[in-house]
Amino acid sequence: MEPKAIVANVRSIFSLPDVVFKINELINSGKSSNNELEQVILNDPGLTAKILRFSNSAYFGFSRKIDTISHAIALIGHNELRNLILASSATTVFKGVSSDEFDMESFWHHSVCTGVVARLLAYNVDCRERIFIAGLLHGIGKLILLSQFPEQAVKILNTDIQDENTIIKTERKVFGFTSAELSAEFLNAWDLPKSIWQIVSAQLTPLSEDHFKTDACILYIAIKIATHKQQYPEKEICGAEIEALCNPAVWDFLGLDDDIIELLNTVADLQIQEMFHYIKPDND
To answer: How many C-beta atoms lie closer than 10 Å to residue 230's C-beta?
Structure first.
């Protein structure tokens, strides 16, 4: 059993809407106008409503009400627009995956938390958007396993009390690969940039990544923070506690300290709440 074979079997089931590929194509061309993007979005009333609602949320904090898609695009920019469309579409694509023994809402909340935290940790503006998408989608391999091998996947997915190494070893023993590797393979099949799926592939061993090492380390730390916040939702985050959960070499490589982590947490909470409300599949 290999990730490529599984992805080939499920790619048609979990395919992105045409609007996502069209928007991505226009933005990647570098020549698209705001009007062209607006016309594509307006053909999807549900997506139009979501973008307008989120553009007016506290996530962006604009002082004036945004009531047109053209206004939204002008203010949030092309890359952020692509993020919103991909985030909303991805959760909808996997809406049919469910299990009475697996908390899907908790899964997406963790994913959103990872994406938002990774974005805040990003070292420059140019990498913020891709690292947000990597954070948001880093775990979708788990959903694919849940859809294809529900019995085995549930047993592994519900082992939160086990350490990460145990879960990784169990995945390799049962499937022959990790859910992280499957996530990366699937994002590659979705034609997302290598700068996204490559760091998802390296999320467990970020220092082994050559071309996107900093991004992979950021994703690694963001996952640790999201997991900690999920396990202790009422507890104030402490930088020392996060550091204790991480590979010291990764922590040192990014030059993190308690103040950075605690400040990040203060900013992240509201953004996580807003983004989670936006991407929840039942908000369609």
So the answer is: 15
To which residue do tokens 């059993």 refer?
1
> 260 is in which domain, residue-wise?
3-14+98-283
* Residue 243 identity: E
Residue 98: strand, helix, or coil: coil
* Domains: count for the chain: 1
Is 220 part of any domain? yes
Residue type, 64: R
Query: Tens of pLDDT along 182-217?
Result: 999 999 999 888 999 999 999 999 999 988 999 999
pTM above 0.85, yes or no: yes
Q: Return the sign of the alpha-carbon dihedral for residues 94, 202, 275, 188.
A: negative
**Please, which contacts does 227-231 make with residues 24 or more away whose CB atoms are closer than 8 Å?**
227/110, 229/113, 229/265, 230/106, 230/109, 230/110, 230/113, 231/160
Q: What is the C-alpha to C-alpha distance for residues 77 and 259, in angstroms, rounded to an integer?
A: 30
Question: SS3 of 158, please?
Answer: coil
What gap in Å lies between CA 185 and CA 164, rounded to an integer?
21
Q: CATH number of the domain that 177 lies in?
A: 1.10.3210.10
